[in-house]
Amino acid sequence: MTRSTGSMPTAKLLFFLVAAAALCSCGGNQELHVDDATKAALLSVAQKPPELDTAVKNVTKECMKKKGFSYDPPAIPQDSADANLGGIIGLRGLDQARQNGFGDIAIIRDPPPPEDSLKPEDKALNEALEGDYGDSESITLSNGIVLDSPKNGCAAEAKRAVFGSVTNHLWMDNIEQDVKQAVGEIRNDSRISQASIKYASCMRQKGVDVNTLKDTMRRAEEKFQHSRRLGDPPSAEEISLAVTDAECQQQAELAKVTNDLVISKGAQWIKEHEKQIMELAQVRKESLARAKTILNRS
Hints:
Elements: H1 10-25, H2 36-46, H3 50-66, H4 94-100, H5 103-106, H6 120-130, E1 136-140, E2 146-150, H7 154-163, H8 166-183, H9 190-205, H10 213-224, H11 236-252, H12 254-265, H13 267-272, H14 274-297
Helix pairs in contact: 2-14, 3-7, 3-14, 4-11, 9-11, 9-12, 10-11
């Protein structure tokens, strides 16, 4: 009978140690990789074509007309054609810069009147638009924050007509917030710093002496803040600075660098929510098709 001595032949011991090291290397130290299909799906969900909001606006207007109200929903200025997973303030696409300048800064937005100051006809309009706000649909983000939206009224009817459900609309509007909170602060990352240096260099070459995108936003605020009403065209000066800004953002790849960084740092969260991301990408595709159908009949 062979008895175990508690020792292990050298060759077998070496094999065991190598195998164990290989298993360990598959764990926490190895950076997770997000596959191209999931990355493309997340970026598509975060990039919202203007047709979606326009279609919601049109359906809302039609619904309110049927209920006896003349209502023209305010348009939401579209300042960026790119996905903005990092939540960059001031990110804008070139087409948006040409058409809308610094719409996020220049356009005057009147605050809604206090609830107790509404006339009876205003309250009736709000009820037709929003329904009973206590009767709502909600989503819960990864950090436990609950977001809700009324499920009755013309606004909800319009969201269902375009997005399929109020819940779909909530997720399409807030998926970036969910992934961003999982990633945390990224502004001090060296990749952001390098992109910012390229942006500032481009701006100076075009005659605008700024160090950061925030500096450009401050300059725009000084010159154009609350200078026009929604629907009024931007001035030539506003368009010129906005186009220069957008061109330098593109040259420095601010959106791409930030999106890639968020996806890299948020890989664990993205892996855990891959099924939801792919489903939302399909929702976006179907919503855009419905939106185009609605706009074609308008």
